[in-house]
Amino acid sequence: MENYDLRAEAQVLLQGTAAKSKRSGNVPFPPEFVSAKAGQESPAPLARMIQGGQGGSVRLRLYMCITMMATSKPYDLKMPPTPRSWARLLALDPQRGPRSVSRNLKWLADSKFIKLEPRWGGPPAITLRSPAGDGRDYVRPIEQGRYIGVPVEFWTKGWVLELSPTAIALMIVLMDVLGGYSEPRYVPAEKRRLYGLSSDTWTKATKELRGHGLLSVGREPQGSFYDYERLRNLYWLTVDRLKEPPEVSPS
């Protein structure tokens, strides 16, 4: 099956999955998933999740889909998809995809983002744990105050399949940066460090998001009138773009 056909099938499956989960509006993620705390040595959970090349791509998409699907206490999937079904949902290669899914579910469990419980006659049940990766029980971010809301169309319109893991990560980071603001924002160097995305990742992901019409970047002078004039980037996400499908070229 060609990549374009795999994606077309996956998008239909994602739409059905969201409908079955009765998911609408935004899927919430807590700030602690996106940003490390000041003085914390380990990278933020989101930055950790996208490390490892192709593995990072699969595990981030897996985790985001599990979060979208687990809508009520105890925030679990008692009868989750098989690795082969996950591979279809994520438009992965039919031969290598199931093995990649199994490896990355194990990574998520070993990293304490999920719990896997053996189930007779089927794949292990999946229970969400704290997005901080500290093994605590999952609590809906909405109940904890401020949260980052990713529109359900990110899944149902196929963006989860189209965007690279680094672009997905930067999109969520900028949703955190822009939360509560109505104008473009500058991201200070110290705040960037807490997000844990490298300069190269930031540059490539910015280009990708701009290419999809999701991000605009402006420039403004930095410093006072008497300082040497330097320009800094101001970022703005067009979140409503997620409500339309991405442009995908057949391959």
UniProtKB/TrEMBL annotation:
It comes from the Bacteria. This is Uncharacterized protein.
